[in-house]
Design goal:
Structural class: mainly alpha
Largest sheet: none
Strand content: under 5%
Shape: globular
CATH class of one domain: Mainly Alpha
Order of helices and strands: HHHHHHHHHH
CATH architecture of one domain: Orthogonal Bundle
Number of helices: 10
Radius of gyration: 16 Å
Number of strands: 0
Length: 132
């Protein structure tokens, strides 16, 4: 059940983290929060799949984590503030993660942000991507 007007769900490049996304990603986000514990981080890094299999996440969510496909994690209900725990576990900064998620790499992402942020050129509404 979407609580916001439909136009909010069609913002280019944006996934709205609403109640539906929260429910969809509940266990994914709980897994991420487990990584605040040093013992859990060590267990995860020892055997990532075994650790993930302790959580009632979908196979698609688990694969997205294993592949470190953070954009897919977001689409599957992950919240970026929780997903940052995966990056921290891997020794990666939020800036490195954002660079990966944009396909720019860390230095290009940093340069773009220092220059004032991303240009809206090329942004499309979801229906435009589906029609392309």
């Amino acid at each position: 059940m979407k609580l916001l007007p439909e136009e909010f769900y069609n913002i280019p490049g944006t996934t709205i983290f609403d109640a539906d996304q929260s429910r969809k990603g509940y266990w994914l986000n709980q897994f991420c929060m487990s990584l605040v514990s040093a013992d859990n981080r060590a267990e995860f890094k020892t055997d990532e799949r075994k650790y993930l299999d302790q959580w009632p996440m979908s196979d698609e969510q688990k694969m997205a984590v294993l592949e470190r496909d953070l954009n897919r994690c977001i689409a599957l209900g992950g919240n970026i503030y929780f997903l940052a725990k995966i990056g921290a576990t891997d020794g990666r900064s939020f800036q490195q993660m954002a660079g990966q998620m944009t396909g720019m790499g860390e230095q290009d992402y940093r340069d773009m942000m220092l220059a004032g942020g991303r240009s809206p050129d090329g942004n499309r509404f979801k229906h435009e991507w589906e029609d392309a």
